[in-house]
Structure formats: C-alpha cells, structure tokens
Amino acid sequence: MNKKKKNLKQFSRTTGLYLLMAAIAVIMLWPFIWMMVTSFKPNTEMFSYPPTIIPNELTFDHYVQAWRAAPWERFFLNTTFVAVVITFSSLLLSALTGYAFARLEFPGRNFLFILLLASMMIPFEVMLIPLYLIIVNFPFAGGNDLWGGGTGLLNTYSALIVPRLLFPFGVFLMRQFFLTLPKSLEDAARIDGCSEFGIFWRVMFPLIKPASATLVVFVFSMIWDDFFWPLIVINDQSMMPVQLGLQSFQTSQYTTDWGPLMAATVWVTIPIIIVFIFAQKYFMNINVQSDK
Amino acid sequence: MANNQSNSPLTVSSTPPPPRKTFLQKQRAFWASKQNRKRAIAGYSFIAPAYLLFVVFLFIPVIWAFYLSFTSYTIFTPGEFIGVDNYTRLVNDGAFRNALWNTTYYALMVIPLNISISLCLAVLVNRKIKGMNFFRASYYVPVVTSIIAASMIWMWLYDSNNGLINYALIQLGFNPQSWLNDPNLALPALALMRVWKGVGWNMVIFLAGLQSIPKTLYEAASIEGAGRWKSFWKITWPLLAPTTFFVFVMATISTFQTFGEIYAMTSGGPVGSTTTLVYLIFVYGFERYEMGYASAIAFVLFFIIFALTLINMFFTQKKVNYDL
C-alpha cells in the first residue's frame, strides 16, 4: 500500500515536471511556430480576428513572392562561400597555432600567447573603424594605389573573408585541447623520425576531432548569423550575405507585409536549425569550453 | 605530496643551488641544442600565418583606434591630433549620455532576468529523464537563431495592430500597446526579446556548473534533513558562485554590445530611446563619418567592459571550497 502511494507520488511529480518543461518549450519555440504559421497563411486570413493558430488554408504564395523579390540564391551562395572558407581556414590556422602554443617550446611563446588572450578582451566595436579603413584603403585593390584613393576591398568577398580568417578564441580552444594529449605520443613519433609538421598533422591533429567539430560548428554558425561586419563593408546587393539580404529585403519593400517577410525568415533560419539538430552536442559544448 | 616536499626550501640538499643564468645565457643554452632549434623554428613557422593576420587585423586596428580617438579624423578630412578633446566632448554630449543611460537601463533589465531564468532552467533540466535532450535543445534554439531573423519575428509579434502580443493583452483585459513605437516601451520590449534569445546560452553554462558539484554533498544534506530549498541555498548557490560571476560578466559584455536588433527593429528610436553605446558608435562612425569621435566612444565601451572583467577576475579568485 505504502509503496503504491509512493509510486503514485513519484508519477505525479514526473508528470508535473514534464508539463512544466513542455510549457516552457512552447514559450521558447512559440515565435518560430508563429513564423511558420504566418508564412503559410493566405493574406485574407493574415489579419483575421481572432488570429487563427492553425490556418484554414495553406498557401505557398508568400514563399514564391518573397523568393522572386530579391536575389536569394545569390545571398545563399555568398554566405555559404564565405562561411565555408572562413570555417576551413580558422580550423587549420587555429589548430596549427594552438598546437604550437601547447606542444612546442620557443622563446617568446608565453608573451605572444598572453598578447592574444589580452586581445580577446577587446570588443569588436573598438576595431570596427580601423578595420573599415584598412578595407577601404587596401593597397592596389579596387582602384587603390599604394595610398588608397579608390574603394579598396569594399563590396568584395575579400572584405568579408580576409579580416576573419581566424579568431583568437579558436586558437585558445585548440590549445586547451592539445594540452590534454599525452606527451608520449609525440615522443614516439619523433623517435620514428617524423617531422614536426608531420607530428602535428598525422598524429596530434586527428586526435582532437571533438574540438575541431566544436570549432567548425561554432565558426560556421557565427558567420552564417553575422550581420554587423557585412553591414559595414557591403552595400552592393549582389554581394550581400543572407542576414544583410533579409534585413534589406524587409526595409526595401516588406516592412509590414508579414507573409513574405516570415517566409523569407523561415529559409534564413531553417538551415542553421537543421545544423543545430544534427550537431547539438557541439553547439552546447562551445559555451562550456569558454568557461575556462 | 612527496614530490613537493623534496623541493621545499626546508629540506637540506647537498648540492648548492645553480647560479642564476642571465637572459642571454639562457637563450644561448636554449639555441645550442639542435632539437630545441628544430622545435623552435617549427613553433615560429606554425604561428607565423596566424600572427601575420592578427597583426594586420587585430593589433594594428586596436592601436590605430586608440590613436584615432585623439584626432578629429573624418572620412573626408585627414583630421589632426586634438588631445583629449573627443573625451571632454563626450562629457557634455547629450546623445552620449543618453546612450550610456539607455545601455545601463537595458543591461539592468536584461541581466537579472537572464541570469535568474537561466539558472532556474538549468536546475530544471539537470536530471536524467527521457526526452531531456529535446527540452534542452528547444530552450537553446533561440541562441542559434540569427539576431536579424529573431528581430523579424519579434517585430511581427510586437506589431501594434495585428501582433500576437497585443492580442494576448486584449484577451487578458489590458490595453494594447504600440511597443516599438512607444519611447517608454521600446527598450523594455527589446530587453524581453534579448532575454528570450539569451537564456539558453547561460543555461548550458550553469548546467555544466551544476554537474561539477559533487552529488555526495546533497546526499549528506538530505541525511541531515535539509529540504530541497535549503540545500539549494546552502550548497548549490555558494558552490555555483564562480559560474554565476562568469555568466554575469559574459552577459554584461554581450548586453553592452547589443546592435543587430536595434538596427533592424528601431534604428535607435523612437526619439533616441533605444540608442545604445554601440548604436551610437555606428551613427557617429558610419552615418556622420566622425570616426575620431566614434573611436573615443568605442574606447569608453572598452573601458567599461574591461573594468567589469577585472571585477570578475577579482571575485572568482575567492572560490568557495567544501572539501570532503
């Protein structure tokens, strides 16, 4: 009897817990649900009162209308290209640099590393203006001579890519992981006559796959979601990444035309949510890793 | 322990301590070894590409920005060195003071809400039951959503005529509001959205903090008759203090750097009520092209963030320790 009562109490507790968590999940996901619902609603139903949670009629009109209104395939191409190049380069450069800091000894190593750590504390906004000036005055680009004069790298992929080929936190993350590997591994490789680069590339780098995956996922999603830097260096529509494209799409014609705007927001949001679903643990890793 | 003892100054050692080497001697000894040379050269060449980029796109810009903040540089005129004039101008600039206040007010709304909600969520999801991954993921989804996409969705939710939030208010018997067009409500509205977008991130950090607290402490507390509430305040809260400080500082930094949603949703308005420091940097730097002055504002932002980071470092030194 007593055991039964206890079981019942346990059961109701668990049920209550699930209900609470589900309620919070609905609140957190509600904006996305509403975005989807709005994007499929015909205009006649858009402003009906009370608003319908489940549309009476589904339509793809908004999607068609929004896709035609701006060069979306171009936006996606731009973002994908930029994000892939940056992800690739920041993985390689961070690993190489992080490895040197963790496993190789050379005079000045600590100083250079501390310099990097200190620079991580400086907010991006501080560098914004000089970075812009570097891009505009980049020698021998965009009609510039050695001292500028033209538009430099403005409105080019280089402007989006080159200043962000790697990030200090990536180096830091990789170093932390390389520090955890046992020294015997590299010693064995050294005795076998492996070159220093060979030790890094063939022995050590393959061993930090979880860190690499974390970095890849983080950098890719950061670039995909990025808005501030593209806003500064891109104003030519054909060079815009998706976030800037979405923003200019909204201000240009669809300020309050919610159907097409939500349809466009759906396709800007969905790719990163899909990546998140498949790489969930790496996403959640990154902010734990940053607590060090 | 044994190792420590042999190195301690109290142990008598038969050999006298080696004479201290000068910097040059150390260098010479280091470079004399062929293996050291090989590894050092590898080390320098491994970090060279990264540091080339850091020099051009990180170190030089910081120094340059610092210099610019003492000049009257605009994009059209080379400008000249004007000492601390930009900084004294800030003191009397109504727009700057307004932005500083807005940023502080915004942070005061976002940070307490963000930290308390994310801690509650972390406690809630810190258990092993079926389907937990789904719940954790769903609280985290707003984090991976881009700020622009989130802004679009929330503009629709906040819409004065047909927005869902006003509909809900009317159903509950309140007056509808013109959220983003109301100078008193625009900043709180942005703050609410920021809390929604940010709690998942801190939840995960708190979760890691919670999982590092040894379970035996809770078992001991429960044997001694402490309830859940008591063990939260006596065990969880003090042991989580370093995490909480870390979360607090990171949240402050990111709140002070808010830009995207302000640009997309309100453009700093209505009547400047949502102009924050970063938005003001953007306005001065890229709309009025007063880049020297904008750099000075950027450095004020940096000093605020730097001070907060130092405070955090100072506090996290004193870790609570319940040794068992």
From TrEMBL, chain A:
Localization, UniProt: Cell membrane
Predominant place of localization: membrane
Pfam families the record matches: BPD_transp_1
Assigned protein family: Belongs to the binding-protein-dependent transport system permease family.
Lineage of the organism: Bacteria, Bacillati, Bacillota, Bacilli, Bacillales
Boundaries of every ABC transmembrane type-1 domain copy: 76-279
Membrane topology qualifier: Multi-pass membrane protein
InterPro entries reported in the protein's UniProt record: MetI-like (IPR000515)
Membrane-crossing segments per the record: 16-37, 75-99, 111-136, 156-178, 199-224, 258-279
Keywords: Cell membrane, Membrane, Transmembrane, Transmembrane helix, Transport
Species of the source: Evansella tamaricis
Protein name: Carbohydrate ABC transporter permease
UniProtKB/TrEMBL annotation, chain B:
Membrane topology, as annotated: Multi-pass membrane protein
Domain named ABC transmembrane type-1: residues: 100-312
Chain spans, region Disordered: 1-20
Main location class: membrane
Keywords annotated in UniProt: Cell membrane, Membrane, Transmembrane, Transmembrane helix, Transport
Biased composition (Low complexity): 1-14
Intracellular or extracellular location(s): Cell membrane
Keyword Lipid metabolism: no
Listed Pfam families: BPD_transp_1
Bilayer-crossing regions: 41-67, 105-125, 137-157, 185-210, 231-256, 262-286, 293-315
Matches recorded under CDD domains: TM_PBP2
Keyword Cell inner membrane in record: no
Family: Belongs to the binding-protein-dependent transport system permease family.
Protein name, per record: Sugar ABC transporter permease
Source taxonomy: Bacteria, Bacillati, Bacillota, Bacilli, Bacillales
